[in-house]
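A brief tutorial aside. Many learners find it easier to grasp structure tokens once they have seen a single protein encoded end to end. The record that follows does exactly this for Methylmalonyl-CoA epimerase. Read the sequence first, then the structure, and try to relate runs of similar tokens to stretches of the chain.
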Amino acid sequence: MEAIYDHVGIAVRSIDEALPFYLEVLGGVVEDRYTSEAPGVEVHVAVVRTADNLIELLEPTNKNSPIDRFIKQKGKGVHHMAYRVDDLDKAILDAENKGVRFLEDTLRTNARGRRLIYINPISTDGTLIELCTYPDNLKKNFT
């Protein structure tokens, strides 16, 4: 499996309060904002592009959100690192053949068409890592 760095997800209590740092200090630009109320997701997302990085600011929409639980347990900050793969199904199979465990209930297509799954932090020495792939019409924006 060849994986290329894609983005970092950062848990925040308020996107509107966090954005000035990423826009004014880091010189970022908001590329997208959306909300996902899918069960097990429940998050507002702001996608910010800096010169050479993509950042997802993640704000919980309710108390059932995994981001809300994350903030309560660990505080605000880096939630996950994401790596892009060409073929998500093949990458999952290859990783499983090497003993990697996944959080299977996280396999989904997000509101913008990105397919993703999270690797169980047991397999990564504690870091939550997302593997993702984009549909052809979105690849040009993220490569």
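Self-check: The mean pLDDT is 93. If you spotted this yourself, you are ready for the next section.
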